[in-house]
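Two folds, back to back.
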Amino acid sequence: MGSILSKNFFKDFKGSGRLRGSLLFVIVALASTSTLWSLGCASFSPQAERACASTDWYEIGRQDGAKGHGEEYLDVRLKECAPEKRDLVTRLYFTGRNAGLVDYCSPTNGFNLGRSGQPYARVCPSPMERDFLREYRKGQRVFELEQANRQIDHRIGSLSQELERAIPLEVRNGLVDQLNELRQTKRVNDLEIQGLRTN
């Protein structure tokens, strides 16, 4: 009986395109499921699980917050942990991140970030952001003025060299006027920078 069924089965298989297509679909589906299962297991190997369990997620979050990193940084880091661990990791991470943001969002740090020309990614909580942005914009203005002064210094140097080579009196007078104007502009910039630093 079994051999007859087997012969008939393979006979039908060879003669039926529908049956052959169905079997191929099942085989492909099983192979795909097996592959995905294997990849899932590889993603959460014992080594990865130990690394996830031994990581100080509070400290990782605190460091990210202190650097002003956005919440998307956690998404990248969560790839190390199995799904059942992610709720705990997320809580620890954001508790640390909030502590780090207290340092990052301080007015003093806002001024320093602005003065160094660094961008701000809108990560500060609303209660802290107003004072942070006030100082950040001051720092940005200082950054702009200091850049302008560097350009002025470069221009003064170039004009001074021209002045040494200039022979016609009218040319020398024009260069002197330009130099005086540039030096006056720089003095004004310096006074504004001093006021921004002290206020």
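---
second:
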Amino acid sequence: MPPRLLLNRTLVAIGGWAGALALTLSLTACSPSSTSKSTPASTQPATPHVSAHARALAKEEQIAAYSQQLDAIPPPAKTRYMAISSSARWQNPFLTIHQNSVELRIPAPPAPRTTRRGHRYARRPAPLWKTTKLTLDALPAALAALPESNWPYGRVIAYQDDLNGSPSARVKVRRNEEKTLNLLNDLGVVSYEWPRNRH
């Protein structure tokens, strides 16, 4: 065979082998690796986002539930509570409104009998009132938990502002008073501003 023809055949063979090798490498690069591992998706649950609107709806539902409980208290008897001339004689809940809180006053339960005198027992001296300082958010639950015996005048609550502070503090008290009265209205409780000339 002539040398030129032999060289041409050798080049063709080498070219065919190179093309096959290039095709193999191309297919290998395109196919997924058997040893590679895909990163699994996170299995951690997403933190639920509670919107301000959802919180407001939940609060409205709570207020409605407390209002339904307070509906068991009879409506207020205006002729009865308007006749009370002294705060010491007031038997319904009484509120003192502060800058960022309210103070709830109710008649204290009688003290247990502890001292024996002959065949009878004397009661231990006890305070006339039980007072509790509350945030405004805690007030609905506190009122709904009171028994009907704490509402002898019906579903009415007396209130007064704490105006003993500075002028700026009094402004904050007035703002808290507005919030308190709106809340009492949502609960279906009549608010009665205690006259300043009565003690």
